[in-house]
Design goal:
Shape: globular
Strand content: 5-15%
Strand order of the largest sheet: 9-5-6-10-11
Length: about 325
């Protein structure tokens, strides 16, 4: 009995159908993968929030945004020793071995701390972020390498737009030599941001802290305009941001959103709050043309303060 083979036309039709099915399935697969990545990012921030709470239980305050043992000048050349909030909570992140390898009495960039700070901490990187798994060369303002360090997708909240990342103090929980207590968060722990996303692909931050004279460099995928050649931000911006814009596309102060929060998720970023909860807040791409804030930005800024006494609407959570 003879078999009839596929004709060329029939074969082309079959190939076209297969191609169509693949085209239809691919977005669904990508959406499922991003959903899993978002879930992991939320879990990372949950772990960070609980670790910060455990640190608070042990030390009677949250860790400093970054610790500096010299007089304040500019938040750039005065951050020694520089160790940041993420370094202090390492024992509560199941990173005791890394913590034991840190000499907090020496600057971050000291050679004796090289092995510890170069360790990648998976819980400090959002899986949706485009970040290196190898140590990153942290530069100074002239482009000279100061130290190699593990990277991060998460930074502490220094406060609202009135708090610059390089300020001596801030209206939020984490700032220079801060020691914020739960009792200091009079706005309510459920509406006060501890830590949020700052995508490494947008702004190249590190987890150990604010390396003295180190700078935060614009990431290769940062979409914010205007694009200023050679733009960088001071050492303090490596570990803190303020609640103003979220996934900035236009930033009138020329900072390329590097002092703001951002993510590689669509439509917004995840934030950990002082009560241990994690919630998603929508993107705030820019301010109004006249410089005024949009309503979402005003709410976001209120969430960034610990004692601003702002009235936050009950339906703010998205």
């Amino acid at each position: 009995m003879s078999r009839r083979a596929f004709t060329l036309v029939e074969l082309l039709v079959v190939i076209a159908i297969i191609g169509l099915l693949v085209a239809l399935l691919l977005p669904a697969v990508q959406a499922a993968r991003e959903s899993a990545r978002r879930s992991q990012c939320s879990n990372n921030l949950k772990q960070i929030a609980l670790a910060a709470q455990n640190y608070h239980d042990a030390m009677r305050s949250f860790p400093p945004g970054y610790c500096a043992s010299v007089a304040y000048v500019d938040g750039a050349t005065d951050t020694t020793m520089g160790w940041g909030w993420a370094a202090f909570i390492l024992p509560y992140m199941e990173q005791g071995a890394v913590y034991e390898g840190v000499n907090f009495g020496l600057p971050i960039e000291h050679p004796l701390n090289a092995r510890a700070i170069q360790t990648p901490i998976s819980a400090y990187v959002c899986p949706s972020d485009i970040a290196p798994q190898t140590p990153y060369a942290v530069p100074d303002a002239s482009g000279n390498v100061i130290a190699l360090s593990g990277v991060t997708s998460y930074v502490g909240c220094i406060g609202s737009d009135e708090s610059a990342v390089s300020d001596k103090t801030g209206t939020g929980v984490f700032y220079r030599n801060s020691a914020t207590r739960m009792a200091d968060i009079v706005d309510g722990t459920s509406t006060t941001i501890l830590v949020g996303e700052k995508a490494w692909a947008n702004a190249q931050g590190i987890w150990p802290g604010a390396i003295n004279r180190g700078v935060l460099v614009r990431g290769a995928l940062n979409p914010c305009q205007p694009l200023v050649a050679g733009m960088f931000y001071p050492a303090s911006a490596l570990v803190v941001s303020h609640a103003h814009l979220n996934n900035a596309l236009i930033d009138g102060d020329g900072s390329a959103g590097m002092d703001d929060f951002s993510s590689m998720h669509v439509y917004g970023s995840y934030f950990a709050f002082a009560d241990g909860s994690v919630r998603f807040y929508p993107s705030i791409a820019n301010d109004q043309a006249n410089g005024d804030y949009y309503a979402d930005s005003l709410i976001f800024q209120a969430l960034g303060t610990r004692a601003g006494h702002e009235v936050i609407p009950g339906d703010w959570a998205k």
